[in-house]
Design brief:
Elements: H1 16-25, H2 27-30, H3 35-46, E1 56-60, H4 66-74, E2 79-84, H5 87-93, E3 101-104, E4 117-123, H6 132-142, E5 143-154, H7 160-169, H8 181-189, E6 194-207, H9 210-220, H10 236-246, E7 255-267
Parallel strand pairs: 1-2, 1-4, 2-3, 4-5
Antiparallel strand pairs: 5-7, 6-7
Helix pairs in contact: 1-5, 7-10
């Protein structure tokens, strides 16, 4: 049987140390360019059960702590924990408050006690986890019965315009890989958590030119981190070929960049 928790293969996902370092470097610039991240997180919040009132919650992959602060405001009598693999993000988030504890940790090995949470919230973080089955297993472990896991992630099809344009330009790997929506479906179904909702939605952003898109990805820390990516500087000829290829996608609003977002709400059975 195929181990979907390790998808997408071939090529696997980036080394976590590189992910942590990249997002740490991006901490100061992240909030200035995080329009998609804000929109997705608020869409995920809107999917939470209306009667949910957690005493203790975790913002897993908290980044700059924006949604830790939103959760603290929404659940005013609760205790919050903000966790991220990137120390630079935690250093940025900590002075801004929102959570009682800011801790460095890995979603695949949470440094939390069993059955210690009523809500685990994670927006646009778990796409960097190679073993998503372990993420779900950890969520099952730390949630109390009746507790909720709400996550948003990215799946195959994300940044396909950029991927296709690079393929036309030089055939090398320049765009991060993501697992399939079907892998998310199968892993969630096998997690021991009850699937309340699981859907995929496309978000399309538009840019005046390719440079605006690539600069934003770098400012987010989400530029190419794949194993097998080309080393060194990208030559002018290849950039010109990329620009020419991407122009084939131009729309009236500008150059499109499509993100395929997975929204999921799961509940630990009583």
């Amino acid at each position: 049987m195929t181990d979907l928790s390790q998808a997408p293969l071939p090529g696997a996902l980036p080394d976590k140390r590189q992910v942590a370092a990249s997002f740490s470097r991006a901490a100061a610039s992240y909030d200035n360019v995080a329009q998609l991240q804000r929109a997705v997180g608020h869409q995920l919040l809107a999917r939470l059960p209306a009667d949910l009132a957690p005493q203790r919650w975790l913002d897993m992959g908290c980044g700059t702590g924006y949604f830790s602060r939103v959760l603290a405001e929404r659940f005013s009598n609760s205790q919050g924990i903000a966790l991220d693999i990137a120390e630079g993000m935690l250093n940025h988030a900590r002075p801004l408050g929102g959570a009682e504890h800011f801790i460095a940790g890995d979603a695949e090995r949470l440094p939390l006690k069993a059955e210690s949470l009523q809500l685990l919230f994670s927006s646009l973080a778990v796409q960097w986890c190679a073993n998503f089955g372990a993420v779900l297993s950890e969520a099952h472990r730390v949630l109390q019965p009746g507790g909720v896991l709400a996550f948003a992630s990215l799946c195959v099809g994300t940044l396909e315009e950029l991927r296709e344009s690079w393929r036309a330009a030089d055939g090398l790997v320049h765009v991060n890989r993501f697992r399939t929506f079907q892998a998310y479906q199968q892993l969630c179904a096998a997690s021991g958590l009850r699937v309340v909702s699981l859907e995929r939605r496309a978000h399309v952003l538009h840019y005046p030119d390719v440079r605006s898109l690539t600069h934003e990805l770098k400012a987010l820390g989400a530029h190419n981190l794949n194993p097998g990516r080309p080393g060194g500087l990208t030559g002018r000829a290849r950039i010109a070929a990329l620009v020419q290829a991407y122009e084939q996608f131009r729309q009236a609003q500008g150059l499109p960049a499509t993100y395929h977002v997975v929204y999921a709400v799961l509940e630990k059975p009583l």
